[in-house]
Amino acid sequence: MRAIILFSLALSLFFSCSPSGPKTLPILGERDVVNGDTIYPTIPDFAFIDQDSQVVTNATFKDKIYVVDFFFIHCPTICPKVKANGLRIYNKYRNDDRIGMLSHSIDVKNDTVAALKRHAEKLGIDSRQWHLVTGNHDDIYSIADNYFSVAIENPDAPGGFDHSGRLILVDKNRHVRSFCDGTDAADTDRFMQDIDLLLQEQFGD
Amino acid sequence: MRHILVFIFLAGSLASTLPACEDNTYQEGARLYQQHCANCHLDDGAGLGALIPPLANSDFLEKHRDALPCILKYGLRDTIMVNGTRYAEQMPGVPTLSSIHVTNILNYINHSWGNAHPPYRLDEVKRLLEQCKPGK
Questions:
Q1: Which among B39, B40, B76 is the top mutation candidate for probing chain A, defined by the most A β-carbons within 10 Å of its own β-carbon?
Q2: Tell me, what's the pLDDT at B12?
Q3: 8 Å CB contact between B90 and B32
Q4: A36 assigned to some structural domain
Q5: CATH number of the domain that residue A51 is part of
Q6: Nearest CA in chain A to B35
């Protein structure tokens, strides 16, 4: 299944490279054709709870584009790098209400709302723009698939979890449009250009 | 005459390897830093908000010089002050590091990002590590 997703990601990236006209970001993922209509994959309904005990749903990001990642607080590996690059994005688009950020904790046992609150304060982020969420274990692990991200509990992995350090860009219509390796500053630079392209496409100027 | 030539040759090749040796020391420190530390303290040693303290220009490095080898190897779970900011977090150690590794990482840190602290000697690091051996 994962191979198929990756393959279709690669394909859609390939087709996005047509040189004519101004560049627009592709819609990522495997698409279906039903009765001649193309159906693009969309992010399903979700409901999580953030550091301010506020329920966060798709409606929180209505008429916004948003950036997603998966993390956990006591993460001995990639998380601080991904958060550092996330902070660069946050600082660039701070107070821009066209953009939201959504970080899912995959450690539902330890990362309580209170722990997420402390974490947000230490990062110095505003909960109106950047939501750190927890919620139902299965909901979080299954929505990771929709964002083409890996989240697996693995007692052998450092800290007990395997996950990808991806940052994912979702448009107003719940489509995934771009992603980057959040541990890599240069790739995050490229990703921020994609954010600008998407803003241009969906909000004009 | 031949002896002199041999001597010159030896001295010359020795001299040319000396600076390379020095570079190599930092190279191993840099490599180990990337492998074990950069994920948290970041490539530029800047740390992250109030979650992870900086190593670049950290006053802690100077004030707690003797504690650093044990922190690298066995971690830290304490409340500390770094440049006026309070950190009450947890750092996992890397118990597999040898005393040579610890020395090289510390000397790399001590000479990077504007830091300039006296280098650690291997026997010094060995002695300091003795104090936090598990079971003591």
A1: B39
A2: 46
A3: no
A4: no
A5: 3.40.30.10
A6: A77
Contact between A84 and B42 under an 8 Å Cβ cutoff? The reply is: yes
Can you tell me the mean pLDDT for B47-74? 96
Total domains in chain B come to 1
Residue A63 lies in domain: 44-203
Structural contact between residues A103 and A158, judged by C-beta atoms closer than 8 angstroms: no
- pLDDT number for residue B36: 94
For A74, how many CA atoms within 13 A lie in the half-sphere containing its CB?
Answer: 17
Which residues on A lie below 8 Å from B42 (Cβ)?
A: 80-81, 84
Residues 114-133 of A with CB under 8 A from B: 119, 121-124
**Are the Cβ atoms of B50 and A84 closer than 8 angstroms?**
no
Neighbours of B41 (CB within 10 A): 22
Residue A171 has pLDDT above 60, yes or no: yes
- Closest by Cβ to B40, choosing from A80, A122, A124: A80
Confidence of residue A69 (pLDDT cuts 50, 70, 90): very high
pLDDT in tens, B2-52: 565 555 444 544 444 444 444 555 899 999 999 999 999 999 999 998 999
Judged by CB atoms closer than 8 Å, whether chains meet at A74 and B40 is answered as no
The pair of structure tokens assigned to A205 is 């100027």
The complex's ipTM works out to 0.73
- For residue B8, being part of any structural domain is answered with no
Nearest CB to A122; choose among B40, B50, B92: B50
- The range of the structural domain enclosing residue B99 comes to 24-132
Of A78-87, A92-101, B3-12, B43-52, minimum mean pLDDT range? B3-12
Count each helix (H run) and each strand (E run) in chain A, helices first.
Answer: 5, 11
